[in-house]
Amino acid sequence: MAAAPKEAQNSVSFAPTAAEDSAAAAVVRRENASAPDWGVPSTAEDLQSKNLASLMLVDPSTKAPTKGIQLMPRAQTKHPLDPLSGAEISVAVGTVRAAGATPELRDSMRFIEVVLLEPDKNVVALADAYFFPPFQPSLLPRTKGGPLIPSKLPPRRARLVVYNKKSNETSVWIVELAEVHATTRGGHHRGKVISSTVVPDVQPPMDAAEYAECEAVVKDYPPFIEAMKRRGIDDMDLVMVDPWCVGYHSEADAPKRRLAKPLIFCRTESDCPLENGYARPVEGIHVLVDMQNMVVIEFEDRKLVPLPPADPLRNYTPGETRGGVDRSDVKSLQIVQPEGPSYRINGHYVEWQKWNFRIGFTPREGLVIHSVAYVDGSRGRRPIAHRLSFVEMVVPYGDPNDPHYRKNAFDAGEDGLGKNAHSLRKGCDCLGYVKYFDAHFTNFTGGVETTENCVCLHEEDHGILWKHQDWRTGLTEVRRSRRLAVSFICTVANYEYGFYWYFYQASRSIKTEVKLTGILSLGALQPGESRKYGTSIAPGLYAPVHQHFFVARMDMAVDCRPGEMHNQVVEVNMRIEEPGKDNVHNNAFYAEETLLRSELEAMRDCDPLSARHWIIRNTRTVNRTGQLTGYNTTYGLRHMHVERTFLEENFLTRIRVLGKGWLLGSNEIGLLKKLILYSGIFLELHMFHAWKTGLSCRSNTLALCFNHMDSSTVHLQLMCRQILVMRMRKIVTSRRMSYLSLCLCHLG
């Protein structure tokens, strides 16, 4: 492969350097005034504002008078939506630790998550209007007195989830940060504690440090050592212990204690890092670990199940000698862009082919796409979505046998998709001219860790976009399709997930895709045994049936300015016209639209037989044909579910949410954050007004979409005030890469 330009190999860190910070704070944005392009103006107001600003650059140290609207001095180097820098994380941790009343309390603090507390949408609009790209005052709502321009933006805030190891308490802290904290780490710098709240009877997500300590404790436990000897294993270095949350099956599993029930696996070669230990599950051993005190509190060797034999195909590394497939006959394929990429990046702000958006990252969700908009010629910058991300996923297992019945992993909430993200490699993870972004996290003890090259951004050729040949003249026209890909990949124990967001030139469409390419969580079989609830994949080895549910949160704002709520959801079904005077030839069919007026009405199933889809529509903006503008949601091909999903009843009992219905309702208007319990884990779910009662919601409102996706079939719910829950069902039958996708297509 040809060497990439040096710039392509550099990563973009979330934290600016001290020199950049000083220079940015000392001068007005002269670089913006001298730049050849400020982006396509949204309106005449934007154009006038930018022309005035280019003529009236005022140094912050002077008192020169100004008239009209001007770009503000860059007193802030961090956009309100930029992820926390390593310096900001360090300051936030230090602030919370210093607030501890006693040395014992401070020493017992464990930091689960430190993340940006995202500001109000109006703050984001103000930043994008005057302080940061795209510099468009028209983003702000119009007022009678004209725009009110403050001298600076509100301070950034951090949200911390803290676990007290000594008292077994979970607390949530809000810390206000100053501009100096963006680049100055530690020392005497402290933020301001805005609030701290103890959340009773919950457990926060477990940390990698706890996993490692739990494995060591179990492997040193004498009864466990004896149990492994019964199975022919004397070398404990061969043993792998994966802590899993206990789940909730009785009051003994209540979150008053921090508990784990590990799964056991065994390698065949202790000194070989290429060995796949997940191919040899150890069954029949019950272990319960107190994760707060790191002691084994229950142990039972219930059943002697022979270890699966070492299969020659168990490994996934290259070379036939290790069970891999020889691909040495594949020739080199080069992807080069000699003129560089078509995208432009300013910090976290990305512009490509009339698209513009901001890249964010959180420990739980991983990649977050903010402020998605499209520059549409004379119509200017048109907002599409405020925020796009995957907020949760769950993997329930359908095997009632021990230990598989208790497998029910929330890989985002329990482990964190972002915290487990890879450092990507050029040439395989991403091809072409690549731009990387780093990510910063806190570890269990409050230190700052950085994952380099965590997010990949690059262009891809996507085949033929369209082609037409005039059969009379022979004139042929063809266009190729190009798309911009933004992605990250994470590993949670045995499984890998690749999350991709694609932006297309054609039809202004957005597509999200999850690639499932991990190792199955397997079970062992007795000689001659078969399992109804799984698929045999090798001698003595089977894959339990299970599903993958992915929750994509899409905060839509189709043609809406901040604060405007003019979106509605319409369901579209194809109908066959009844025979009659309007259908004399018996061939008519048409698209029937139904407005979803309440959350209860919007509990909908997918129906590919009627080509059912949903349109997120703006009620006050029309396209050139006079139709309301909107985005059409389309999904992958494998939609049919085998049976009605069990989530409404049985699954709710397992996650200890009182009452019926998938989400509990609230009598308060607006979006509320509530805490629920699953496996004793501290999770946040969004609960919606009038979900249970079916009270009518305004059809002109915001559109917050929750898509529950899986790679084979779909169970879909739509909500009007906060719309769209899609759930897909999957039965895993083999170890292969699976795909699921969701696409938003522009309608004008």
Automatic annotation (TrEMBL):
GO BP annotations, alphabetical order: amine metabolic process
PTM characteristics: Topaquinone (TPQ) is generated by copper-dependent autoxidation of a specific tyrosyl residue.
Cited InterPro entries: Cu_Am_ox_TPQ-bd, Cu_amine_oxidase, Cu_amine_oxidase_C, Cu_amine_oxidase_C_sf, Cu_amine_oxidase_N-reg, Cu_amine_oxidase_N2, Cu_amine_oxidase_N3
EC number assigned by the record: 1.4.3.-
Copper amine oxidase N2-terminal domain mapped to chain residues: 79-178
Biased composition regions of type Low complexity, renumbered to the chain: 15-26
Catalytic site: 411, 495
Region (Disordered): 1-42
Recorded GO MF terms: copper ion binding; primary methylamine oxidase activity; quinone binding
Top EC class, one word: oxidoreductase
Domain Copper amine oxidase N3-terminal intervals: 204-307
Domain (Copper amine oxidase catalytic) ranges: 333-635
Names of the cofactor(s): Cu cation
Pfam families in the record: Cu_amine_oxid, Cu_amine_oxidN2, Cu_amine_oxidN3
Record protein name field: Amine oxidase
Modified residues (2',4',5'-topaquinone): 495
